[in-house]
Amino acid sequence: MNLFMHKSFFIKIALILPFIGLSQNLIINTTNRNTTTLNGTWHYIVDPYQTGYYNYRHQPYDQLPENNNAAFYNNYHAKNKMELVEYNFDTSPTLLVPGDWNSQKEKLFYYEGTIWYKKSFDYNLPNKKRLFLYFGAINYKAEVYLNGKKLGTHIGGFTPFNFEITSIVKPVGNYLVVKVDNTRHKDAVPTTNTDWWNYGGITRDVKLIEEPLTFIQDYNIQLKKNDKNSINGYVKLNKGSKSEKVIISIPELKIEKQLTTDKDGKVKFEIKSKKIKYWNPKNPKLYDVSIKTDYQTLKDQIGFRTIETKESNILLNGKSIFLRGISIHEENPMRGSRAYSTDDALVALNWAKELGCNYVRLAHYPHNEHMLKLADKIGMMVWEEIPVYWTIDFNNKNTLQNAENQLSEAITRDKNRASIIIWSMANETPPSKARNNFIKNLINLTKSIDSTRLISAALEKHNSNGVNIVDDEIGKYLDIVAFNQYTGWYGGSLEDAPNAKWNIKFNKPVVISEFGGGALQGLHGTAKERWTEEYQEYLYQQNIKMIEKIPNIRGMSPWILADFRSPKRVLPGIQDGWNRKGLISNGGVKKKAFFTLKDFYKKIKKQYN
Ligand code: GCB
After folding, report:
1. What is the torsional sign of CA 83, 89, 92, 94?
2. Could you give the 3-state DSSP secondary structure of residue 351?
3. Is 485's C-beta closer than 6 angstroms to any atom of ligand 1?
4. By three-state DSSP, how is residue 6 classified?
5. Which of 24, 30, 209, 458 has the fewest Cβ atoms nearer than 10 Å?
6. What confidence category does residue 63 fall into, taking pLDDT thresholds of 50, 70 and 90?
């Protein structure tokens, strides 16, 4: 018997749900629903050979036909009801969920492969209610089984997914098993090569969501593009039918709009209002919004703002802004692990506030939802991105589908967050025909789901005859031309930086999505000595002088807020597995360059006020 089967079940033909299209069923705003957490301790089994998944002929147990005559070994298994007896979840150790396994057990620090997770729970589902199992994220591939039945597979480490379990759940002794596999693959998103830690595990919240038979699954409530006096969007009911009543109310604006669904249980709407107070970082106004049907009321807090570009300007609510940003990885550096809680989000965004930021680049994948909710609340504009990073397999259709699925899950989850102003498609991808098509596909998909935000990607520059050139073909399709540049770290002289020449072939706002250099906090020396705080400080001073002179410059997100773990960073005594480009050390101590940037942001804030 395989690991995901409860003792009383034998191999069945499993219904394997493909991961593609899961976003169609994604339930949004799970924090304000009737939920039961499954966070806490889960038993686990480390299974590097995937013994619980494959039989001795290396066929997946969950795909074995019961009566397949074609292969002897299948019959052999079916006839003899072969059982794998060499495992026991209940005597196995435990891991905390949410959380990565690498930071929880020393032996799992570098582990990449399969780990089985198991949780038992009881649940009394009342009559005429439905139950869903929701995962905030699992890195990277998840196979989910409940009471011996396969619920499905999900691919992609940073986006949520859910399964309906109404007909499977029982009052006592539910047996939930998840196979988590964080093996890196060339054709995956991201691919094998990244400059961050491949944390494995059930890294975000797990919950049960109880809903009425017909329930509000998804909605979009935002300002209409180019019209600051209209709130528009849609509400989508699950198992809804024609003529269901939906009421959207925003009491503070005296809005109470009654709507009626179409035959698919969906309704679009537009509400006019001249009294809206607009969300911005200084005054992050959120409105209490409620969506009512005959069966439930769902609440949210939503901000309204416009974001657009006009020639070289980025306009927030019609006013030109400068993005005073910083890049952030989803890591709590002091714990040396994935960030997963509101407290973790607070640590990062408070540091960003202290730095004088009005904007953060959440690199290099969609961060957890706590981050976006907090950004909405405290007033921080956000660049959200998907892990289309470096050398993705751009010729591979499955890779594109995978990226599209992650993108659509991210937008589906976050489209009501006022803080998000930019969807980013990719980071430092090498231009080619295949890559351009890949990214164009992503842009089209983004626009089809949400046309209200700006689209960008972190591009690269190249140098010709002493001139820095940005002419990436994909720039034509972006609202903001963003690029990474590492003058003074990966080449280029810091002394000459302020006099650098630029040729950026687009009349659009320019954002430096990355610059920076490494420093070990506490290591001091001259500004010429790499790894010292003084070198990093000088690098910031010179880069800032250079960036200020770049035509159309409208923002930046230096690399990076805090030191982060990366297996690529092996220099002993200095890096020891950490990328040291943080302005704050993994001990939480600010380096000198933090204050250089802070001073610059103080100055630029005055200019744009
Ligand atoms: C980059 C990447 C980022 C790296 C950084 C570095 O350009 O976008 O993921 O961590 O450089 O430190 O080299």
Report:
1. positive
2. helix
3. no
4. coil
5. 24
6. confident
User: Do residues 527 and 502 touch, judged by C-beta distance below 8 A?
Assistant: no
CB atoms near residue 541 (< 10 Å)? 19
Q: If pLDDT is split at 50, 70 and 90, which confidence band does 277 have?
A: very high
For residues 113 and 49, what is the distance between their CA atoms, to the nearest angstrom?
A: 8
**At 96, which amino acid appears?**
L
**Ligand 1: nearest atom to the Cα of 363:** 9
How far from the centroid of its chain's Cα atoms is residue 348's Cα? Answer: 15
Distance CA(196)–CA(578), nearest Å, equals 9
Which residues touch 79 (CB under 8 Å, ≥6 apart)? Answer: none
Query: Residue 31 corresponds to which amino acid?
Result: T
Are 562 and 591 a contacting pair, CB within 8 Å? Answer: no
Residue having the nearest C-alpha atom to atom 9 of ligand 1? 195
Only one residue has tokens 């002794």, namely: 173
Query: How far apart are alpha carbons 181 and 342 in whole angstroms?
Result: 26
How far, in Å, CA of 166 to CA of 162, rounded? 12
**Ligand 1: which of 191, 196, 559, 561 to mutate, judged by most atoms within 8 Å of the beta carbon?**
559
The response to whether residue 514 sits with its C-beta less than 6 Å from ligand 1 reads: yes
CA distances to 330, 339, 359 from 377, in Å: 19, 19, 13
Can you give the pTM of this predicted structure?
A: 0.95
The β-bridge relationship of strands 307-310 and 323-328 is: unpaired
SS3 42: strand
What are the DSSP calls for 594-605, one per residue? HHHHHHHHHHHH
CA of 591 to the centre of ligand 1 (A): 19
**Alpha-carbon distance values, 287 to 177, 249, 318, 381 (Å):** 40, 10, 20, 17
Q: How far away, in angstroms, is 275 Cα from ligand 1 center?
A: 44
The one-character DSSP state at 86 is: S
> pLDDT-derived band of residue 83, with 50, 70 and 90 as boundaries?
low
Q: Does ligand 1 come within 6 angstroms of the Cβ of 581?
A: yes
- Pairing state of beta strands 454-460 and 420-427? parallel
Give the pLDDT score at 8: 32
User: CA end-to-end span of the chain, whole Å?
Assistant: 67
For ligand 1, say whether the CB of 427 is within 6 Å of any of its atoms: yes
Which positions ≥6 away from 151 have C-beta within 8 Å? 17, 133, 144, 145, 163, 165, 168
Query: What pLDDT, in 10s, does the model give residues 454-475?
Result: 999 999 999 999 999 999 999 9
392-446 residue pLDDT tens: 999 999 999 999 999 999 999 999 999 999 999 999 999 999 999 999 999 999 9
CB count within 10 Å of CB 212 equals 17
Q: Could you tell me how far CA 401 lies from the centroid of its own chain?
A: 17
Evaluate whether 188 touches 399 at the Cβ level (below 8 Å).
yes
